[in-house]
Write a structure and sequence with these properties.
Blueprint (H helix, E strand, L loop, with lengths): L14 H21 L4 H77 L5 E9 L7 E4 L12 E3 L4 E8 L4 E5 L6 E6 L5 E6 L6 E6 L10 E4 L11 E9 L7 E7 L8 E5 L75
Antiparallel strand pairs: 1-2, 1-12, 2-5, 3-4, 3-12, 4-5, 6-7, 6-9, 7-8, 8-11, 9-10, 10-11
């Protein structure tokens, strides 16, 4: 009985011959592709046809990698968002501090410029806090008796007058602002020199010119400066600007409302004027002399070598007229050179 193997196990040419043949074919194809580029089209066609199969085979791998990247990226992004928020808060705080410092530097430069033009000695100070009484307009500064601050000294900024020192402690001092109800300052209109007194109006933050004549030459926009009449504020400091003028036709006085030019409730750095302005001393007023009190009168000395006064003409004395006696009969009447006055009749 003849046995024949199945077709799958039938052996044709020897394996070495097959390897040699296929190796020669591969070398020939490589040489043709390298020299003539004959297989580029075949390669492109094969790559195009096999691309969907490649993508389908890579989908599980890509899905696993993308899922891992998604969760890792999500956690990383959340961490970055938290860090960026913290950095943003810190940057915002730094920016606010920088803006505050820029504003303070600008204010300090303005104060230094104003300090150079002041005729008196001044000192820089900073507001610590407002006064506790809400009904008053007062602030507390960080300068006191130790730095040479005295009671009644004016406080200004680069724009104008702010207030006056009303209390002095060892390390601090209390300043009553210009708009306080108990504060008054002598002013004059810069345009025409008209003098008046400005009074604070409390929480409204404005000033009043009281007791102003209805026909006074004051218009909206006039600038008020210190007149220096009180001997406390140097003359020429800016005080306020007129914003409203009301004439009272039925009364005697008008009303003038002014807006302070200084930073009464804005700035934190201020200047304290340490020296009083140069004011001529007041004349000495002598006590009035009281008439009738000899104790206060000086002693009178006798006058010497004084010519006598000319004598006055004496007035002729009036001669009383009396009745003449009757002549006796025995005696003869004697003739006289001068006529005699006729005898007057005797009155019964």
């Amino acid at each position: 009985m003849e046995y024949s193997p199945p077709p799958l196990f039938k052996q044709g040419a020897p394996a070495r011959v097959k390897v040699t043949v296929f190796a020669c074919i591969s070398v020939a194809l490589l040489m043709l592709d390298a020299r003539v580029h004959m297989l580029d089209l075949v390669r492109q066609a094969a790559g195009t046809a096999l691309y969907p199969l490649q993508m389908l085979a890579l989908m599980p791998r890509d899905a696993t990698a993308n899922m891992g990247n998604y969760f890792s990226t999500l956690s990383k992004l959340q961490q970055e968002v938290r860090e960026l928020k913290s950095a943003q808060v810190a940057a915002a705080a730094q920016m606010q501090q920088a803006q505050l410092q820029m504003a303070e530097n600008a204010q300090l430069r303005k104060l230094m410029g104003a300090r150079e033009h002041l005729p008196v000695k001044s000192m820089m100070s900073e507001i610590l806090y407002d006064a506790r009484d809400p009904a008053t307009r007062k602030v507390v500064l960080d300068r006191g008796i130790r730095e040479g601050v005295k009671l009644g000294r004016p406080v200004i900024d680069n724009a104008g007058v702010v207030g006056q020192v009303t209390r002095v402690f060892l390390f601090t001092s209390e300043v009553t602002l210009l708009t306080d109800k108990e504060q008054a300052i002598p002013v004059q209109v810069l345009r025409n020199g008209l003098r008046s007194v400005a009074y604070g109006r409390g929480q409204s933050g404005v000033l009043d010119l009281r007791f102003v004549a209805p026909n006074a030459d004051i218009v909206v926009g006039d600038v008020l400066i210190t007149s220096g009449m009180d001997g406390i504020y140097p003359a020429g400091l800016a005080v306020a600007k007129v914003v409203q003028v009301e004439s009272n036709a039925g009364g005697v006085f008008g009303r003038v409302v002014c807006q302070p030019l200084g930073g009464v409730d804005r700035h934190r750095q201020l200047l304290i004027l340490l020296d009083a302005p140069d004011v001529l001393p007041r004349p000495v007023v002598e006590a009035p002399k009281v008439a009738g009190k000899k104790a206060g009168l000086p002693k009178m000395a006798p006058l010497e070598n004084v010519p006598p006064l000319p004598p006055k003409e004496a007035a002729a004395p009036a001669v009383p007229v009396t009745a003449a006696p009757a002549p006796s009969p025995a005696a003869a009447p004697a003739k006289s050179a001068t006529p005699t006055a006729p005898a007057a009749k005797a009155t019964p």
